[in-house]
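Re: that chain you flagged

S.,

Sorry for the slow reply, it's been a week of failed gels. I finally had a moment to sit down with the sequence you sent. For the record, here it is as I used it:
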Amino acid sequence: MNDYKGVLVPKSAKTIIRLAGSDPYQAELASLLGEAVETAGAQRTLEEERVDAPMPIRLFTGTKVTGVVGTVPRGLESAVSEALSRLEVRGQKQRIPARVVQSRHGLRVELLMGETR
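Prediction finished late last night. Pasting the structure tokens below so you have them in one place:
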């Protein structure tokens, strides 16, 4: 949370959140490597917020929506929700830019939170 200021606004344009639980989705992520992707779906409902459950993320490629490719790490759900709110208030699509990256543990999804400032 040191990368955020005020009401969960990223301090830097380089702020990212790396999704957790992407191991089962390696084949899907491999097909997205190098493509421009964004999160798909809107904010969680109040009912979903009341339940202490992971926030699953799907990606939009411009032509299709993937299945779940990971979850927002515990404690960072509010940063993602706030980013979606900021986009909605501005009249923009509720999609956070993302990228698929190769790490030493396999393919991972990074949400480009700094681009929602």
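What I noticed first: The chain has a mean pLDDT of 87.

Talk soon,
D.
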